[in-house]
Amino acid sequence: MSILAYDLGASSGRAIVGRLTDATMEYRGLHRFPNDPVQVGKRWHWDILRLFHELKQGLLKAKQQGIAVESLGIDSWAVDFGLLDCKGELLANPYHYRDSHTDGMMEKLFEQIPQREVFARTGIQFLPFNTIYQLFAMKQADSPLLREARHLLMIPDLLRYFLTGERAHEFSNATTTQLYNPVQGDWDSVLLEAIGVPGSWFGKVLQPGSPAGTLRASLQSELGIGSIPVNAVAEHDTGSAVAAIPAAESNFAYLSCGTWSLMGTEVRQPVMNEQARKLNFTNEGGVGGTYRLLKNIMGLWLLQECKREWDRTGSPRSFPELVELARQAPAHQAYLDPDDPLFMPPGDMPARVQQYCRQTGQSIPHNIGEIVRCVLESLALKYRYVFDLTEQLSDQAFQGLYMVGGGIHNTLLCEWTAAAIGKSVWAGPAEASAIGNLAVQWIARGDFSSIGEARQTIRQSVKVTEYEPASTASWEEAYGRFRQITGLS
Questions:
Q1: For the stretch 293-307, what's the b/e string if a residue is b when 16 or more beta carbons lie within 10 angstroms of its beta carbon?
Q2: How far apart are CA 410 and CA 302, in angstroms?
Q3: What confidence tens digit (pLDDT) does each residue in 159-198 have?
Q4: Computed from CA positions of residues 375, 381, 385, 386, in that sequence, does the dihedral angle turn out positive or negative?
């Protein structure tokens, strides 16, 4: 009996097929595809119809390989959305969260409703691309799309709608909009009124593990396949990744590492106090009635953009080659704050790294290895900073850090993270979001009774590599310099 997990990241997507044996889960890649943003004029968009096409290709490959798919689920990145008209037709390609139309919108909204109240109503950290600011930007620009819109669906909700014809929101992704009130357990009418968007656009919210329809009859006919149940999983990919953490203990720290890095812990109730607001932590919905108390960190986006620029200008290197060059470069020469707004947009990232170092009076990294080392050391030190804050805010002491996602292939980053936090790092699985997606589907099907039981099976099924901290004294000194240079108190 096989199930299908679609896991869509900010740069690529994959269809993973999984099945359960007596004691373990087995999974393998079925279909992989790029997810490239498209720039038209000044605007950045997602090619949502291409993504839907790739979902269909995954179903066709399953059919061609004789795989009987018993259910499927979708997870993706958060905050972005599509708008439907009165006939249920998509009005336009969704904006990409890195599009500049939200510039200055956070501050403008706070003129109408105080930042403190926004956090008290949502518990969500302040990021300029959150759904609330995207909608507010469209309202301020008098977008004609808002006049025609009747429904809003987040990216996985939208793709699920294309598959099933059923409109519904999913809890983990709904919370990321900064429009969902976890205390009320519903969309926040005060915030919707503040941005001038009708509450009728927002429907029922499904918990991860809920049934969410079956494939449309027209799609069954088009692909020559039968009816397949579609489940709402933890549709924010970080929610799925955390579901796959192979932890035996109930209090653990995690780092989901990819284009973005997300570090935090799992809690039963959202932490919505003043300290959480000042530290700009977030409380995103999780599996089994939990919340993910975490903080976003810019992540390997910086390295990906550096590589893109070097590829473009005739100095192509693979990621393993970049990591080896970083290993050979001098240690602890310069640091940056990965979350500085300078690094948010696409563009010439190596030049921006040098610009940051120049502006902060540091030694300027000149060659590829020095730039990559600056980025990776800075990420490890930022992880230390957020790790300490997570312990402080959750009133817990963690024995180490569970690290999952594609970033664990960067073994140097894993080593340096262990050294920076001075504790063990347990790395694996790399395909955490897809595995968590599968796990929640098995919970929905009754194969697991709880997320705890699912994690037990995951521990028995995946490889986890342990990294012990080394050279902690030099990293402790580096951490002090890093905080001084970046101004992180």
A1: bbbbbbbbbbbbbbb
A2: 14
A3: 999 999 999 999 999 999 999 999 999 999 999 999 999 9
A4: positive
Going from the C-alpha of 372 to that of each of 241, 300, 311, 353, the distances in angstroms are 26, 11, 14, 9
Q: Residue 211 and residue 23: Cα distance in Å, rounded? A: 25
Contacts of 483 (CB under 8 A, 6+ apart): 385, 489
Collect all residues with Cβ–Cβ distance below 8 Å to 366 and sequence separation of at least 6.
354
Q: Select which of 237, 339, 348, 388 is catalytic.
A: 237
pLDDT score of 286 more than 90: yes
Element (H, E) at 333: none
Q: What is the CA radius of gyration of the chain?
A: 22
- pLDDT at position 344 is 94
Q: Are 35 and 10 in contact (CB under 8 A)?
A: yes
Residues 425/401, Cβ–Cβ less than 8 Å: yes
Q: Which two tokens stand for residue 435?
A: 């595995």
pLDDT score of 489: 79
Instruction: Look up residue 398 and give its two tokens.
Output: 């963690």
- Split at pLDDT 50, 70, 90, the class of 23 is confident
pLDDT tens digits for range 56-105 = 999 999 999 999 999 999 999 999 999 999 999 999 999 999 999 999 99
**Following DSSP, what letter does each residue of 369-418 receive, concatenated?**
HHHHHHHHHHHHHHHHHHHHHHHHHHT---SEEEEESGGGG-HHHHHHHH
Q: How far apart are CA 265 and CA 229, in angstroms?
A: 31
What is the C-alpha to C-alpha distance for residues 399 and 402, in angstroms, rounded to an integer? 10
Residue 120 has what DSSP assignment?
Answer: H
Residue length of the chain: 489
- Asked if 410 and 319 touch (Cβ cutoff 8 Å), the reply is yes
**For residue 52, which phi and psi values (nearest 5 degrees)?**
-65, -40
Strand locations in 35-181 (E)? 38-40, 43-45, 69-75, 81-84, 151-154, 169-170, 180-181
- What is the pLDDT at residue 471? 87
Domains of the chain: 2-232 (3.30.420.40), 246-428+464-489 (3.30.420.40)
Beta pairing class for 38-40 and 81-84: unpaired
Q: Please choose, from the candidates 225, 228, 186, the residue with its C-alpha nearest in 3D space to the C-alpha of residue 211.
A: 228
The label of the residue with tokens 């905050």 reads 79
Asked if pLDDT for residue 260 goes beyond 90, the answer is yes
Measure the CA–CA gap between 484 and 489, rounded to whole angstroms: 8
Amino acid at 337: D
Residue 237 bears catalytic tag: yes
Where do we find the tokens 């953009």? Answer: 305
